[in-house]
Amino acid sequence: MSHLKLFAATLKRHGFKLLENQDIARRAFLHGQRYASSGTSESVLSGSNSNYVEEMYCAWLENPESVHKVSLKLDCNADSEPAAAGALRPELPGVTNFSFCLTFSVISSCSALLLFQIRGHHVAQLDPLGILDADLDSFIPSDLITTIDKLGFYGLHESDLDKVFQLPTTTFIGGNENSLSLREIIKRLEHTYCQHIGLEFMFINDVEQCQWIRQKFETPGVMKFSNDDKRTLLARLVRSMRFEDFLARKWSSEKRFGLEGCEVMIPALKTIIDKSSEMGIEYVIMGMPHRGRLNVLANVIRKELEQIFCQFDPKLEAADEGSGDVKYHLGMYHERINRKTNKKITLSLMANPSHLEAVVPVVQGKTKAEQFYRGDTAGKKVMSILLHGDAAFAGQGVVYETFHLSDLPSYTTNGTIHVVVNNQIGFTTDPRMARSSPYPTDVARVVNAPIFHVNADDPEAVMYVCSVAAEWRNTFNKDVVVDLVCYRRRGHNEMDEPMFTQPLMYKQIHKQVPVLKKYADKLIADGTVTLQEFEEEIAKYDKICEEAYTRSKDNKILHIKHWLDSPWPGFFNPDGEPKSMSCPPTGISEELLTHIGNVASSVPVEDFKIHSGLSRILKARAEMTENRLVDWALAEYMAFGSVLKEGIHVRLSGQDVERGTFSHRHHVLHDQDVDKRICVPMNHLWEQQAPYTVCNSSLSEYGVLGFELGFAMASPNALVCWEAQFGDFHNTAQCIIDQFISSGQAKWVRHNGIVLLLPHGMEGMGPEHSSARPERFLQMSNDDSDAYPEFTEHFEVSQLYDCNWIVILLPFRKPLIVLTPKSLLRHPEAKSSFDEMVSGTSFQRVIPENGPAAEEPHEVKRVILCTGKVYYDLVKERKNQDLEKQVAITRLEQISPFPFDLLKEELEKYPTADLVWCQEEHKNSGYYDYVRPRFRTIVNRTRPIWYVGREPAAAAATGNKNTHLVSLRRFLDTAFNLEAFEGKTF
């Protein structure tokens, strides 16, 4: 932006009108801005603080005397070069009352304000132990006035401290006073910025937001609490600390990852929830690591204590499936009345593995879904709270990935409150060895989130900061970070010895007075409570714990349903079982297929100019619809469209999904003449249809897949799909797949219908974009290769219900992994007829041979079993070698769970034929290791199943086209060499 435009924008933003002397003032303003960035002298008006220049200028416009002169006279000719540091310039007419508050030889009230606002947090007293610096740096900035003996640095004398300065509009330290002495200014600034609260906010490039924070913290007397508030805070601290003490007494040798050293976190969270409830929030979704989880469940979510205590009894078994994880990983969902506001509040704490921060995008996705289904576009009813450890917050990349979703239209949750439990240590690693940034919270600066550091041994400061954080989120719909600088009284867990690696820190911790005693002594001393009242509060909660402990001995009490974090009311029977075990046909009428095809090949918006290349694609779709044919892209359109008609929301997310990586989808059309004008034909299918959300994501897999997983948890009546740009990209989201998708139901009874679309196919394009690594998903499938199933009436559905991930429209939800095509998107043979999709049809788990070989099965010498793209290579080669009567080719469309029933029937057709499994993937990849033992189980190990494909290799594919074609030729020759396996044993 040019100087003139910047000046005009500044005036407009602050509502000023043009004045006669404003041209001269403008030149001085611009000159000061250039001077600040010239590097000729130390300046407080550089870098991310340039917005302060605007504030100074606006303050001068309102009152020229509020911005004080410095000994340096500035050349206000906007066309001249900045003056050298310390050089005197002749005064210009009309500008004698205007100068900028640069730190050269004199400090004024303005520069003092700026120094403390920007850098005061560096000297704030944040560490409860008094031995570490929260920013890892013991150096005190020399330009912060904290003692009189430093005045000489600025050319000041002690007498200057009593000079009175007019306060600018960029501060609230004066309260009702307009001027203060420099001594009082510094005193008040120190009180605000250098005590138990350290504020980082001056990097925010929004004047209104900076002013809001200043007002909340600088205004004298803002941090005052009534006696009732103090008593409530004390009672919450009692519950937090006595809960940990009770567990320590009853189960001294059990890990529980207690909260000792940061007991203030419980009243902190309750303050955030109270304040948010007061402002209209009805649903709070939380994610956190294991430290303090049981305490949060007990004292924030208000889970029954007996349900928590019985988890410590190793003899108890869950009354139904689940509970496959440790107690400090489990989640919870609870509706209750908030006692502070008398409003109903729903709280959900998401289950989470030991993989720190993995739950962060999951919480955000679930929050977005709950907002979406409530029509809460501004996030005024549903919000998220995320708790972090200091080491993980700084070290885990998924934190950064998720922060960058915070302002994207299809991913924003309208602000999240992040609470960092800053132990000032990782497991055993000193923070100076664990991060390169001053604070663990610096990652939040990338989205202009204010960061409030606070000493966790000052409960009232913590409560005030948390209240302000809740107001910030509600006011600006932006993220905010509360950094609870605390300590960890025990080791990483209760069995760990921290003195091995942190002897000095833990010597201090052993002497540290607990925060509850400190605060109780303070309240007793000032008469807020009596010692008797304090002791009665402790006795009352201890009695609650003892009574719950007695009830926990009932071995009928433990039901995993009490630990569900995402219940789906009405979807299952009361006993948790599906309402039906049947699988109805999924086909739709030809009329609907034709209608969807016609919309997919049109532009349902008037005066909308599309790209000429897209016109050809739409024309091809129309021709296919007329000929009753579909390719992959059109079939996907019809699948989504039919679900939308049933009122089920469809959400497709991932990198470049709107167009499709391979330019095949084009679900979002762009007007070629009007910027940002788009059309989504899928949302124009019917007047009463569910919404279709298709959104390009940030260049993230871990964060975005976690987000979509969380979105899919919110409701069973949604089809949520994540598409990888290429199938192998899922490996950077492997944590989400391993910890949540594959095992989520077994660990936490967490049903989920997330769909992963993974482009897969070997085309000689190199190892990175060929294989979606199907062997990894198959290895994690839970069906038994050696167990021959009993074919019951509803075998197909019951088999799907028992496995851990699968397929299609069912009365329950399982994750689905789909290996989607690349070259087959335009393969002339890769098309299907409407006949395979009309009413009465269903998904085909196995597509048997239906050519000449099937007419005389006893004459068939070889049955080739395969899946995916290689089928088209095999069919072409079979025709070239004129072996259509001697070789049958059968396709597996569903690999896991393995279709034992249909394959048994198919293999029995060809009793004398060789059985061959053919795949294009290398032998140590793909499907062979999974299907081989299951085929042998079908034939009772009486017939061999031979492998045909590429040899084992470390890389997933070659990048040399010739090598690719040679290896393809080799295994096709083997597949159709009918004597290849004669005489060999198995």
From TrEMBL:
InterPro entries, A to Z: 2-oxogl_dehyd_N (IPR032106), 2oxoglutarate_DH_E1 (IPR011603), DH_E1 (IPR001017), KGD_C_sf (IPR042179), ODO-1/KGD_C (IPR031717), THDP-binding (IPR029061), Transketolase-like_Pyr-bd (IPR005475)
Assigned keywords, A-Z: Calcium, Glycolysis, Magnesium, Metal-binding, Mitochondrion, Oxidoreductase, Thiamine pyrophosphate, Transit peptide
EC number annotated for this UniProt entry: 1.2.4.2
GO biological process: glycolytic process; tricarboxylic acid cycle
GO CC, one annotated term: mitochondrial matrix
Compartmental location: Mitochondrion matrix
Domain Transketolase-like pyrimidine-binding: residue ranges: 630-827
SMART domains named in the record: Transket_pyr
UniProt key word Oxidoreductase: yes
An MF annotation (GO) of this entry: oxoglutarate dehydrogenase (succinyl-transferring) activity
Gene3D superfamilies (alphabetical): 3.40.50.12470, 3.40.50.970, Multifunctional 2-oxoglutarate metabolism enzyme, C-terminal domain (3.40.50.11610), TPP helical domain (1.10.287.1150)
PANTHER family, alphabetized: 2-OXOGLUTARATE DEHYDROGENASE, 2-OXOGLUTARATE DEHYDROGENASE-LIKE, MITOCHONDRIAL
Family: Belongs to the alpha-ketoglutarate dehydrogenase family.
NCBIfam families: 2oxo_dh_E1, PRK09404.1, PRK12270.1
Name of this chain's protein: 2-oxoglutarate dehydrogenase-like, mitochondrial
Organism this protein belongs to: Junco hyemalis
